Every structure is written in structure tokens, then in C-alpha cells.
Amino acid sequence: MDRQSLKIDFETALAAFGTSQSPAGFLAFIDEDALIIDEDNPFIQDKKAFAANLAFHLGGQWEKLALRAWNAAFQVIGETGVVTSYFTLRGKPKDAGFRQRHGVMSLVCHFDTRSGHWHAGAMHLSPLLSHIHHASPG
Questions:
Q1: What 3-state class would DSSP assign to 136?
Q2: pLDDT tens-digit series, residues 78-92
Q3: Strand locations in the chain, DSSP E?
Q4: 116: alpha, beta or left, given left = phi > 0 and alpha = psi -120 to 50?
Q5: What is the Cα–Cα distance from 126 to 135, expressed in whole angstroms?
Q6: pLDDT tens, position by position, 100-130
Q7: Contact 108, 122 (CB under 8 A)
Q8: Are strands 117-127 and 30-37 parallel, antiparallel or unpaired?
Q9: What is the pTM of this model?
């Protein structure tokens, strides 16, 4: 129940998201009662709705889809952990080309003493609009 264990559980979840077309490994990190604000939807979702959105994207829309975190910071206070990171959601849709969306993610996690693992009780993914609006000079 320290920063290192939070980092390991977070990175394990991201690795599962990025190496499989099944989001089950990533979703295992998300608490059953989690509240999620996803960069792809303008409203708060529960885990079931978030999983359905992932299934939509992975169910024939994309050849590949990966979530990568960078410059992640981890903080632990008691049984509560916070992960804050930049992210890149990148994918190859079946129609053509590829897509990337950059943003900031923040997760509030709790340590489950029964399983010995961290779980995200709240997750917020928000795009960095400056990457879109200021992508080209002039």
C-alpha cells in the first residue's frame, strides 16, 4: 500500500489495455462502483457504460487501440492513492489512417486489502485542446 504498488497496478492495467483487444485487464483495475469521465463522452459514466463504450470501439471499429500514460505522478495517503498523468489514446481505425488524442488523466484509487491491489474509484480523462487548436503555426 505504497506509491510503488500503486504504480505497478496502474502500469499493469495500462499494459493490458494496450496489448489486447479485450479491455478486461484494464477494466479489472476500475472499481465496480467507479465514476468515470471519459474524453470521448460529455457525461459521467459508471463502469458498465465505460466498458460498453470500449467494446463499441474495439468491436470492429478499430484494428488497434492503445492508451499510453507519460509523466505519471503517484501519491498515497493512507489507503487512498492518486494517479495524475498525461495520456495519449492512439488507434488505427479500420477505415483509414490513424488517430491520436492527447490529454490529462486523473484517478482516485483505493487499496483493497482483500485482493492486495489498487482500484480506481474515480477516473477523469480530459483532452488537451491546445494540441488540436495550436497544432500548426500561424
A1: coil
A2: 999 999 999 998 888
A3: 30-37, 44-46, 62-77, 80-93, 99-112, 117-127
A4: left
A5: 17
A6: 888 999 999 999 999 999 999 999 998 876 5
A7: yes
A8: parallel
A9: 0.85
What share of the chain in percent tops pLDDT 70? 89
CA distance 53 to 64: 15
Helix ranges restricted to H, 1-138: 3-19, 24-27, 47-56, 130-133
Query: How far apart are the C-alpha atoms of 94 and 7, rounded to whole Å?
Result: 33
**3-state SS, residue 23:** coil
Contact status, residue 98 vs residue 91, Cβ threshold 8 Å: yes
Residue 34 backbone phi and psi in degrees, to 5:
-65, 150
All domains in the chain, ordered by first residue: 3-133 (3.10.450.50)
